Amino acid sequence: MPADRPVALDEYPIHQAPLSMKHVVSGDRNAYDRCIFHVFDHAGRAVLILGLGVYPNAGVIDAYATLRVGDELLAVRASDALTDDRMNLSVGPLSITVDVPLKRLTLRCAPDPADPHGLSYDITWTAEFPAVWEPHHVQRRGDRLMLEGRRFVQAGQVTGSIRAKGEEFTLTPGEWTGTRDRSWGVRPIPGEEGGRAAEEYRPEGFHWLWIPVRFEDRFVMVIAQEDADGHRTLNEAVQVFPEGSGRRDVQLGWPHTDIRYRPGSRHPERAVVHLTDPADRKPLELGVEILNSSPLAVGAGYPPAGDWQHGTWQGRGWSDRRVYDLSDPAAHPMAAYGVTDHSARFTLDGRIGHGIFEHGSFGRHDPSGFADYSSVAQ
Fold first, then answer.
1. Distance (Å, rounded) from C-alpha 24 to C-alpha 55?
2. I need a labelling partner for 249 at 20 to 30 A (CA). Which of 93, 169, 214, 342 fits?
3. Is the overall model pTM greater than 0.90, yes or no?
4. Which residues lie closer than 8 Å to 312 by C-beta, 6 or more apart?
């Protein structure tokens, strides 16, 4: 084994602890640092979801990209051993380049020489609004810390192209939107299932909404996490304006959501998020029309995915490409127990915007009328 030596980042005065920048303060194996991007058109034809993460105490870096077009989901995944070069955000054919921090990033997926019809893209993501912090997110199971995350979210425009199945999508401003989320902290990596926490502290229900929306002149972010009885454990509703506009961020009260589900399922079709203008306490309605849907448990590596999950060791230089048929929900029964990201058209006080309606509802949720885990359908 080589000696433990300083890494390039140690040259900069950015340390938060008396450790090399190659080490994180927490010794928890579930320490992570990652991102997710959503790129989608306003007509609902395509949803591209991609991300990259590092797991310092597991020694893993991995990345993924999924493209939903019609009833097919094209997926590219890659994983490798984490190196000391933390500025190199690439693994296999997937890469993210920070051109100007918080302003402009380049997202790439190299084509597969063996499959000219496979997924590839070259995208420039440009911020149109300042990055905004999300609430500090903490979840425990019994006394065990399961998740603690620091996050920011941002919306912008995207240019470039996506290629798949012999078709090329040109990303035109005004017709496509890009949102992104950056988070770091502690989040479960598969491998510690079982024990008392799994047996005695299984929640009766979990209800989740994460809604970043880009309008022409403002960005709206709504978050709501609830227990089985509707008790709110995470909450956010904020309106953000472009830099230089002279307008401050505005909190939009305590959001309440009415969701119309597809009959016999927990798949949302339309929704209204009830907000409040703090200036005059006037009610505001954020209308939601679902355009396209991409389950994160299929292809993207989020639990309870059965073929690959983030942070798991796959060996050096692992990569994988798959095509999933989403026309039959029964072919992916576990997807209903994971979060789904829906591209959507939004309305707010006469404005039309576009964003992501991320939703997951598992087990009992009294406000929605869901009884238990057996009532899940897709």
1. 10
2. 342
3. yes
4. 60, 79, 189, 190, 191
